[in-house]
């Protein structure tokens, strides 16, 4: 369970949001929508531990997350809009780097996990490719595999359909639904209303549901 209580964030005198309360059950999908400049990315950055909050708490399975850019750990995995893949590494190296270096998993463990994730995300034939050799949708699935390799409690996506065609967008929906069946809790920030509706999750509309 992801439990957000009384979360508040301001930039100077501008309150971006306050009194934000929301609960997402394990395996739940929360879609975060709202107009440009309303605070969606700010919310995602706080959740990801990339930005501080002024007040409030975020609890994941009873454990309070540190709400500052100093947070360590792998509680929340984020798929950024530009994917942030390492261009000098192959797909398989992108997926195994953090389990190897950060989690210090043994080679057999991280390699096996990588094979499973690439298979699940339909990327087995791309494992030796470099990011520049992939389509946008493929790069995104590598970013998802790389995040999942760290076994996060929550997986969050920033505008996952931006720049994708209809077929790739449908693919993203399928991946998110597949991960939901596996019990992964997911937060999806999006402008794309038809896509948000297709996910059939709980909706947080920053334009209408949030105090400022
Ligand atoms: N580092 C910052 N310093 C000051 N103000 C900021 C900062 N980051 C964001 N803001 C302001 O906070 C508000 C929310 O921005 P945010 O990027 O979270 O919106 P958004 O909903 O993600 O927009 P978009 O959909 O266009 O990405 C905006 O008014 C923005 O100008």
From TrEMBL:
Q: Which domain of life is it from?
A: Bacteria
- Transmembrane stretches in the record are none
Q: Which GO terms describe its molecular function?
A: ATP binding
Kindly state which keywords UniProt assigns to this record, in alphabetical order: ATP-binding, Coiled coil, Nucleotide-binding, Transport
List residues of the ABC transporter domain: 2-212
Coiled coil, from the record: 100-127
Q: Write down the InterPro entries for this protein, in alphabetical order.
A: AAA+_ATPase, ABC_SmlMolc_Importer, ABC_transporter-like_ATP-bd, ABC_transporter-like_CS, P-loop_NTPase
PROSITE patterns in the record: ABC_TRANSPORTER_1 (PS00211), ABC_TRANSPORTER_2 (PS50893)
Is Zinc set as a keyword in this record?
no
Q: Do you know which Pfam families this protein is assigned to?
A: ABC_tran
Could you confirm whether the keyword Electron transport appears in this record? no
List the PANTHER family. AMINO ACID ABC TRANSPORTER, ATP-BINDING PROTEIN-RELATED, SPERMIDINE/PUTRESCINE IMPORT ATP-BINDING PROTEIN POTA
Name recorded for this polypeptide: ATP-binding cassette domain-containing protein
Protein source organism: Fructilactobacillus carniphilus
- Source organism phylogeny: Bacteria, Bacillati, Bacillota, Bacilli, Lactobacillales
